Structures are given as C-alpha cells and as structure tokens.
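Deliverable D5.2: sample structural annotation.
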Amino acid sequence: MRSRSRLRVLVSAHRFGAGSDTARQGTLPALAAALDLGVDHVEIDVQRCLDATLVVHHDDHVELAGQRLRIDQLTVGQLEAVTGSVVLLADVLDAIGDRARAHLDLKLDSPDDRYAEAASTHEVAAVALAVERLGAERVLVTTLDDRAARAVRDWADAQGHDLLVGLSLGRSVRGLPWTEQVRVRVSELRPRRRFGASRADVVVAQHTLARLGVAAFARRTGRPLLVWTVDTEDSLRHWLRPGRAWLVTTNEPALALRVREEWDRERAGRRRRAG
C-alpha cells in the first residue's frame, strides 16, 4: 500500500480533449492541442467503414436528412460526403508518434462467427494497426464487449505482445427492459466472472460505478483501474490523488493536468516536512 500510494495517476484526453466543443471532438487540431499539453494518453474512438477503413468517430452512426446511417454500412467516401471530413485512425497514430500513448476505445464489432478465431476480428485488425505503428508498449485497448476483449487478449498473447486490454463497465442501459438493466448493472458491480472470461487485465469503470465498488474490485484483484469520464475539479481531485487510480479519462485535460500538479506539490511538501 505504501508503494501504491506514491503512484502518479495518468491522464487520457477523451475525444482528444476537446471538452464541450463538439465541433472539435475527434479532430486533428484537438489532437495537436492535447499533445501540446503533455497528456499521457489520447483516447481514440475507433469505427470501421464498409470498405474496412478504420476511422475516428464516437457514435456508430451519422445523421443525414433526419435519418441515421450506420458507419459500418458506409464506405469512407460516403462517410466523408455526409460529414464533410473524416479522420483516419492511421493518421491519428502517425500524429501521436512518440509524444503520448494511444488509448484505443473500440466502438466497432465483428460478425458473431469471427470471434471463433481472434485474428479474424475487426477489433484485432484495428489493434494490429496501432501496434504496428506505435509498438505494443504504447497502446492501451478498451472495449465494452467481453468477446472483443478476449479476442484482443488472445491475439496479443499469441503474437507475444505485452499489451494492456481493458473491459469497460458502465454501458448505457437506456431503452432496455428493466430486468435487463438490472442484469447489466449487477454484472458490472460484480464483474469477477466477466473479467475471468474476457481475460481483460485493466478494469475500466464509469466514475460512479468506480465509487460504488468497482475500484475496490480492481484493488482486490491487482488490476489497474481506469476511471471515465471525469471532468469536474472536485472529481478530478478525488481520482487524481496518487495511487487512487491508474489512469483517468477526461474531456478537460488542461484542468486534469493542473489538478495533478497540485497533488505533486502537496506530496513534495509532505516529503520536505517529513525530511
């Protein structure tokens, strides 16, 4: 515990750290600003187009004339025609280079039959590109899907990659029958079986669930804890306390880094007084 209490919490820029400016979220200018701030990770929402092009987009659809069009049913050219611009995963990885680590949040999925062979999944294709460009030690993978986490973990082990794979807890249950809502939340608050089956080695928890017991689960099982998405100063001060989490994802990276510096100064002051 004494060793753990000295660990500095890392910061990941959610949607490239564009905050509430939706027009800048997931854009290359926002990415450049986050890298200039000196964040440890940049969170990248990964989708797959119909032609297998990997793109950066949070939602799995775009809207056109009041209709929802699924990204996985559009070619990259069609997607660009609807949105006006497309950010490619490959370009983001190249921009990150050695300035930060890539936090790939996989929003895509694969046909059911693909999960029988990990290397054939769309999720592994996205991760393989990141590992090729940056190296496994500079890549963190997160997903809400247990099968996807297992596929990436199995592939990484088969390839000999020391890759961190996180299972995310806190999916939206809006619109689900209440019985299913309860089942999902119980599986998240008591996730031991899911982590065993998925072989994920990072606990990724929405900040409320983390406080309700998921953080304690991470400590008990010796897994790193990633908390998302933490934006207020009070919450950032709570989760950025040294040793409380491993990594915090935030839309406000400048604020997060300032709060972390305050913790650094407090800790340095305690050491001086103790010495």
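Annotation notes: The CA atoms of residues 71 and 271 lie 52 Å apart. The chain has a mean pLDDT of 95.
The annotation will be released with the project's public dataset once the embargo ends.
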